[in-house]
Write a structure and sequence with these properties.
single chain; alpha+beta; Structural Genomics Hypothetical 15.5 Kd Protein In mrcA-pckA Intergenic Region, Chain A; Pseudouridine synthase; three-stranded antiparallel sheet; RNA-binding; PsdUridine_synth_cat_dom_sf
Length: 322
């Protein structure tokens, strides 16, 4: 619950916000994104690093887990103007409505199309969460996790606070091992058979302009991915990837570290190879798809296995490579 806004030596409009029990365990950066609607992550990290954000009067890191009753100092910030305050575009609403692959009383799962952000901000008015709230006004919906804008596939939203809290606890368990996450990816070149495991720490840095760039770095966070070839096709390797941690750009950077970047990756990939695949197979996007999520709620008593079929445009690429 918010405490009365007050000013201090840092200026006017400082807010002091008390963390309620339902937010206990949430990372500081995600808590701030909820408080500063529309703020880009780069801005959130900037105000945390500069010490403008305080927890119980002291500096804190973005990944700090908050506890019920913590007092968070939030400085005044200038947020980007939203491009539109009206309803989401009809085409986006229709696409999101058609993307639902599972629903029960507490969860909603979608097969997110590539090109749609998880949430608005940084010039994007409507991401997944804003569009679904447009479709279902009055229904409480919260993102359980996020997918990169260019990645397609399974995203889970919670319809009840109890489900959100339990799923967030599973995501924290052993760096995210409480939820099994599998992806489908086309990697450049021919990987050897069997399972290739990449155990390489990842560090997130910010380039000029606030763009996130991730690299393997001994000072980074522990990160573990397992790559298994399903089929070698057209000189490339169609793989299933299981990740035991959920770091930013993890699969893309670990694939690059292997020397077999994800096809269509314009940030960590091979520009010449991407052009050949675009010309020869029509690949116009990142070939990375979140295919399966497995977890259990109610203390392990209620299992879920959710699946999202491969995006049609990626299936077409495989057909053309065959």
């Amino acid at each position: 619950m918010p405490i009365e806004p007050r000013s201090d030596s840092a200026g006017q409009g400082v807010r002091m916000v008390r963390v309620d029990p339902e937010r206990a365990g949430q990372r500081l950066d995600n808590f701030l994104l909820g408080q500063l609607k529309g703020a880009p992550r780069s801005l959130v990290y900037k105000i945390v690093r500069s010490g403008q954000v305080r927890v119980n009067g002291g500096r804190a890191k973005a990944e700090r887990r908050l506890e019920a009753g913590d007092e968070v100092r939030i400085p005044p910030v200038r947020l980007p103007e939203a491009e539109s305050t009206g309803p989401a575009p009809k085409g986006l609403l229709a696409a999101m409505e058609a993307s639902v692959v599972f629903e029960d009383t507490r969860l909603l799962a979608i097969n997110k199309p590539s090109g749609i952000a998880s949430h608005g901000g940084s010039g994007v008015s409507f991401g997944v969460i804003e569009t679904l709230r447009n479709l279902r006004p009055g229904q409480p919906l919260e993102l359980v996790h996020r997918l990169d804008r260019d990645t397609s596939g399974l995203m889970v939203l919670a319809k009840k606070r109890s489900a959100l809290t339990e799923l967030q606890a599973l995501l924290r368990e052993d760096h995210g091992a409480g939820i099994e996450k599998r992806y489908l990816a086309l990697l450049l070149g021919r990987l050897p058979g069997g399972t290739l495991s990449v155990d390489a720490p990842l560090h997130v840095g910010l380039r000029q302009g606030g763009e996130r760039h991730v690299q393997v770095n001994g000072n980074g966070k522990p990160s573990l991915s397992h790559f298994k070839v399903i089929e070698r096709i057209g000189g490339q390797s169609y793989c299933e990837v299981r990740i035991e941690t959920g770091r930013t750009h993890q699969i893309r950077v670990h694939a690059q570290h292997l020397g077999h970047a994800v096809a269509g990756d314009d940030k960590y990939g091979d520009e010449a190879a991407n052009k050949r695949l675009r010309d020869n197979a029509g690949l116009k996007r990142l070939f990375l798809h979140a295919s399966t999520l497995s977890f259990a709620l109610d203390g392990g008593k209620t299992p879920y296995m959710l699946n999202a079929p491969l995006a049609p445009e990626l299936a077409t690429v495989l057909d053309r490579l065959a």
